[in-house]
Amino acid sequence: MEGSNYLRAAQENESKANKKAKGSFFKNLFGSKGDRLDEARDLYEKAANSYKLAQEWQKAGEMYKKCADCERETDGIPAQYILDSVSCYKKVNNAEYLTMAEDAIAMLAEEGRINQAARLRKEVAENYEQQYEYEQAVIEYDKAAQLYEMEDSVSFANQCYVKEADLMIMLKEVNFEKAIQTYNKVINEYMKKDILKSSAKGLVMKECLCYMANDDLVGARNRYQNFSFEDVAFANSREGELLSNLFTAKEMNDVDSFQKTLHEYNRITPLKKEETQILVHVKDTFGGLGDGLNLAGNDDAEEKEPDFT
């Protein structure tokens, strides 16, 4: 069947469904409201499927919404139709997608489908992140993490907490203490399992950089030393050596050494976006030392990476 035929079939079923949903005097006399709405729901669902085949995602989403409305009217379970609507709107209408996703998350939670609610909440967080709405993305990742924790899905919760902390760094007003706490929460979980301990090094590095960005070199050194007791190999790791060299550069107020250290590290192990952003703030703590700090005071610094060449 061609696209035009799918569209025609969808429109016909939608028209029939609308008539069923509205009803008439005689149908009210000879048929129950529940029966009419069940028939309308089935027709709306057929219309939705045809609209999908015709690639008419906006209309398909609307039809699934109407299916959900019919379910509500008959005390049915609308959650699946809401989820289907969410999937359609996600392709074409971001505002409607976010609205329907909130409804779906609430319904899934009420039905005890917490893992599904968490997955959808994480999708919403990713959506905000893709739109560069980092402040809202931070909130959504935190909510997703908490939902995963309710189901003891620690691994997924940790992923969300890491994303939350990473995006905190991208905000115009950075709460470094909160980012440190969030990284530390995940590090503690990683250290409980041998298989995850190696993943903790990168988070400790970001945690120490947050201390430095907050102009707390003592805190950074203490965290470094404490973790070195937990993981004796940390000091000789690339992350550990980088931090040690950065500490020395900061103590000496040596910007050239700071940038050379970063250049050498970045040449072999490219720095991640959030790491470069933290380092912008670390560089700012050196203050007024000439061209080497040309990002200091740049209002757009949070969207740029520093030049370590």
TrEMBL record:
Pfam families: SNAP. Residues 1-20 are annotated as: Disordered. SUPFAM superfamilies: TPR-like. The keyword Membrane applies. InterPro entries: NSF_attach, TPR-like_helical_dom_sf. One of its GO terms (molecular function) is syntaxin binding. The keyword Protein transport applies. GO terms for biological process: intracellular protein transport; SNARE complex disassembly. This is Alpha-soluble NSF attachment protein. It comes from Euplotes crassus.
